[in-house]
């Protein structure tokens, strides 16, 4: 027996035997395995018995029976269910849940006014509230600007006062450095010069303060409080008071 038939599997030999397609060499190998392999021999015996039963079995007719009366089909007919057992109710609940989540996430607002419904997304404040918030912001901004202007005005006034003090100091130093004879000769002229200079400085500083305060008052919407130096109601002590 060649190695080709010795290497053939038991399943292939069994299939060829059942189909009655074994040649002489395959049949010899088949018989040899039946003698040497007990498991293969039992498998062949079982297949042989099954084949004999299949060949000897005869067909028989099915008995006549009434199918309509054998089963109670009324029991399996569709029965109407109550509305709370409706199969679409869970789906409707899920849809309503998604709608509620959408309304919460988008901050959906539904308002009724004068018989009309309006739908909007996001938080909407009434116009009156918005106007109050804007007015409050403007007032805070103006108050902050006014405080800043007051600080600037105080600094500017201090600068003018320092300048006036410096001028007075320079005049004093001039008088001290001059000789006694020159002081006697120029005493009357110096007094007149000091008075004129003081008057001019007061007018100059008053005009500067008036212009500066008008500029600040224009920014905060207030009227200036200083009186014009050219008017009859001007008081030269106003500068000293400031």
Polypeptide structure, described:
Residues 220-242 are annotated as: Disordered. The protein is mainly alpha-helical. The longest helix is centred in the middle third of the chain and has 51 residues, at 127-177. Strand 1 (108-113) and strand 2 form a beta hairpin. A two-stranded antiparallel ribbon has the order 1-2. The protein folds into three domains: 3-55, no CATH class; 87-121, no CATH class; 129-241, no CATH class. The protein starts with a helix and ends with a helix. The protein has nine helices and two strands. The model is unreliable at 222-242 (pLDDT under 50). Helices cover 67% and strands 5% of the residues.
Shape: elongated
List unreliable stretches of 5+ residues. 222-242
Q: What is the element string, with H for helices and E for strands?
A: HHHHHHEEHHH
- Give the helix proportion (percent range): 55-70%
- Count of discrete structural domains: 3
Largest sheet: 2 strands, antiparallel
**SS content category:** mainly alpha
Report the count of strand segments: 2
Biggest sheet, spatial arrangement of strands = 1-2
Give the end-to-end Cα distance, rounded to a whole number of Å. 137 Å
Number of helices: 9
Rg, please?
Answer: 61 Å
Mean pLDDT across the residues is: 73
Strand content: under 5%
Region (Disordered): 220-242
Q: Which key phrases capture this entry?
A:
9 helices; 242 residues
Short structural description:
With 242 residues, the protein is mainly alpha-helical. The chain is built from nine helices and two strands; from the N terminus they run H-H-H-H-H-H-E-E-H-H-H.
């Amino acid at each position: 027996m060649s190695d080709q038939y010795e290497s053939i599997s038991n399943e292939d030999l069994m299939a060829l035997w059942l189909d009655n397609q074994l040649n002489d060499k395959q049949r010899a190998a088949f018989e040899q395995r039946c003698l040497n392999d007990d498991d293969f021999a039992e498998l062949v015996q079982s297949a042989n018995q099954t084949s004999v039963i299949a060949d000897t079995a005869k067909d028989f007719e099915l008995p006549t029976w009434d199918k309509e009366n054998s089963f109670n089909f009324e029991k399996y007919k569709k029965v109407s269910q109550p509305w709370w057992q409706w199969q679409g109710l869970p789906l409707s609940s899920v849809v309503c849940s998604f709608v509620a989540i959408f309304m919460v996430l988008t901050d959906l607002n539904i308002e009724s006014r004068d018989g009309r419904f309006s739908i909007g997304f996001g938080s909407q404040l009434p116009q009156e509230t918005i106007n109050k918030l804007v007015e409050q912001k403007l007032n805070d901004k103006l108050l902050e600007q006014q405080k800043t202007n007051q600080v600037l005005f105080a600094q500017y006034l201090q600068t003018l006062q320092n300048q006036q003090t410096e001028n007075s100091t320079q005049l004093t130093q001039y008088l001290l450095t001059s000789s006694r004879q020159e002081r006697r000769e120029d005493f009357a002229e110096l007094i007149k010069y000091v008075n004129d200079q003081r008057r001019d400085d007061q007018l100059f500083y008053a005009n500067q303060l008036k212009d500066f305060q008008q500029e600040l008052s224009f920014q905060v919407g207030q009227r200036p409080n200083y009186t014009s130096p050219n008017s009859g109601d001007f008081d030269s002590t106003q500068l000293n008071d400031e």
